[in-house]
Predict the structure.
Amino acid sequence: MTTTPKVTVVGAGLAGSECAYQLAKRGIDVRLLEQKPVRRSPAHQSNEPAELVCSNSMRSDNPESAIGMLHRELRELGSLILGSADAHRVPAGDALAVDRDGFSAEVKRRLLSTGRVTLVAEEVTTLPEGMVVVATGPLTSEALTQALQPYLGEKLYFYDAIAPIVSADSVDMTIAFRQSRYGKGGGDDYVNLPLNKEEYVAFVEAVRNGAKVTPHAFEEPKYFEGCLPVEVMAERGEQVLAFGPMKPVGLTDPRTGRRPHAVVQLRQENRDGTAYNLVGFQTRLSWPEQKRIFAMIPGLQNAEWLRLGQIHRNTFLDSPRLLSADGSLRAEPRLFFAGQMTGVEGYVESSASGFWVALSVVARIFGKPFVPPPAETAMGALYRHVTGEVHVEGAPYQPTNVTFGLFPALPERMKKANKRAAYATRAQSAFASWKQSFEGRDFVPATGDVASPVMGANQ
Ligand SMILES: Cc1cc2nc3c(=O)[nH]c(=O)nc-3n(C[C@H](O)[C@H](O)[C@H](O)COP(=O)(O)OP(=O)(O)OC[C@H]3O[C@@H](n4cnc5c(N)ncnc54)[C@H](O)[C@@H]3O)c2cc1C
């Protein structure tokens, strides 16, 4: 006799809904526990699943943008979220924008149409028995956060503070110089952008006057002293940045033979060395202002930004250190995590995470290896961010959208416009072979009869 495996998914947001649907499609019964309408985060308003808490846009649908590539892959995989979005698309240029109520209603309808998903309105305050996927998002309720704390300890964070990331080949190396402070650690690990006194003063002034993103009412700014936004430091005094992240001590500009008045340091962001982050430059300056003001930094006048800085309330875990490659908690392998909590950022990225975690749970249940998406695909690039494979070892973990900085370097240098096409073409071919191998695997049961589960699933 075969028994239908059961999995509990906590949180019917973007990731939890996608995950539950993909599990159900593969013959697994799912209890999908959602706190609404019993309790709501400060940002959630509707009672429906997959609520878009802010913009109704899933960003660019251009297949030569990193996010557009992710759209395409999710569509090809039969994603619940992309399918529902396409069904409720509204005109928005090249962006995929949706009628949010129609979209959420569609997600619910499709979930229930599987016949395997039971939606339960319940705030989860203690972790359920059996195999569980936690997908409670950036505003996970307080009670569940406390229940998770013993498993996650110090490695559960509540704010992200993201510094901008720039494409390495857009930095003007006729101005920048490679050097480590006092020549420590090999001598040239950092790329330094020198500012003279006038340039520095003008820069501080621009940061002070630049437009900032206003925090949400529930995002009371509580900054760590060691991780202050640049604009907060600029406000504290003209020379504060020059004694903080822009300090020039231990550095000599080889072109002048002198110590600059201030420096901006760039640190390698990915193992391929195609991207750098601006060290200590977490900021709430608006994105257009970041582009304008950071272009004042000598060497960044033609910067190609792969990601801009931001700071917001965000419950997320140090995934590379806490999770196994299959998305389960190393310390408690029956618990999986999906969505924004794992350090992906955005509606579509969270859905993608929900998707691959479903594949991983299915693989576990049926005793087959989990084959993650290849690094060259948008999904695979994002997956490798979560596992920490993309980043320089030991670097602090911060959430991210999907960006080209997460992809393996292209074999040769090329212009920005050509690079995008090259990333997209490479991704499509890697994705096609992955999908083929994965579709050919027989652990995905037909609807109805289910092979014997191997381990872990509640029965
Ligand atoms: C204020 C704000 C604005 C944002 N704006 C955008 C934007 O414009 N564009 C964009 O792409 N991304 C935006 N994001 C990020 C976006 O919300 C997330 O990327 C995405 O929703 C994350 O998906 P998720 O499934 O991980 O979490 P969510 O979509 O948040 O889903 C989590 C679900 O879990 C439920 N839940 C929480 N705790 C419990 C519990 N204890 N028991 C049961 N259920 C629980 C919640 O009610 C929610 O339904 C924003 C985030 C915030 C906070």
Summary: The chain has twelve helices and 17 strands. The radius of gyration is 23 Å. The chain has two domains: 6-160+313-439, 165-308.
